[in-house]
Amino acid sequence: MSGAVSLSALFTNSLISSLRTSKSRNLGMPMTLIHSLAVTHVFRKQAKMFGLCSYGSRTKTFSTSSSTTTTFGATLSNSSSDCPYPEYNRLLPCPSQNGLPRVEHLVVREGGPVLEYISKVVDLPPQFVADLIHFGAVYYALVCPTPPPTATTEQIKIFKEVTDPDVLRKRKSIKGKTFREAQKTFRITRVDEFVEAGTYLRVHIHPKRFPRCYEIDWKSRIIAVTESYVILDKPAGTSVGGTTDNIEESCATFATRALGLTDPLWTTHQIDNCTEGCVVLARTKQYCSVFHGKIREKKVKKLYLALAAAPVPIGVVTHYMRPVNVAPRLVSKDITKGWHMCQLEVLECKEVPWPTASTEQKLRIDNCGWPKKDVAYECKINLLTGKTHQVRAQLAAIGAPIVGDSMYIPAAIAEAMNPGLNRLVKMGNFMKARMKEQKLWKNGWRSMVRNQV
Fold it and tell me: Per the database record, which ranges form the Pseudouridine synthase RsuA/RluA-like domain (predicted)?
């Protein structure tokens, strides 16, 4: 689970908060290119592809001081170095915590069924690979993506071999496609899907898990059901529509099952995993498009309740967010070229008692070093733009982070102790000023040349 799960009950969509106040809740818990690399490396998500950091062989990676350790339903043993998965209990029961991400990047050497190939090359039980495919954790591309600058000489060599024009011309599957189109990745949905030689595979062996999904009475969270949509009171610690490597443990999936629907529900918008509140799930693809249109036309109003650690001024708060899809999100008060504008309107801000010790323990709230106060500040917020982590990042930027937000409180504390510490924003402003100076200098130089002529 994300580090910010402790704020789950404190960051609630106000559209339904009044409907649920009487109910108590437990809000706890929140390419490689060749076979040899697939067997010897473990990759983090940040490595994107080909692996930027390794942790030794799989046997070493999973070794512990005890004889066995249970991870994601698979019992791993140290008794045999030849078989890292001697016992297998599938992906359930769901683990209470997430482990280190592990992603394998492969280039298919011999065509065949995808399940058999992955199981053989990565040395995993076929049923485990089948479950990964069911979770949506396996992707393919007809042509291997371009390696990053950090790729090894061997990886670059393999990439050049499988993308050589003479090799690609022999592959009927990519005829009529541009090189870039052939590099686009798609999720594999069938265990018997055939992959031809030269196909690229990305396997998320340790998908992000959501144990909270199995603790919820999903029927009780359904607020309304119509012919076009379903309104769900999303629990904290869950994903609305799933993640890159896990589309099984999502609100859309579990709500579909709770209602006994034959067709899956569609997500129309998102709220953070650690956020609790109202979400609209479309029953048809057509209504999904209709709702997206309503959002674009500003016909949907998004109201939030956030418990801030410091007072927040009433009115519109504007920041600019760095266009990098990595958390935590970076925002600046200054207009920065290419950054996205973020606006929210604080409608109300009132003092409320700081959560008691028992409440903090029950909801697993971590102060993260924030000086404990006698009061907190309940803010009613109208979200004018919808960027990921927008409310959390903006409140932290003005020195009023959400209580228990372990992702943004440390940054707010550091900025308060050392104003201007945000080096990236300062660097962005410096570069902007420098570019302005260069533009003025060029214009002045051109003017001088024209005058001399």
Answer: 229-397
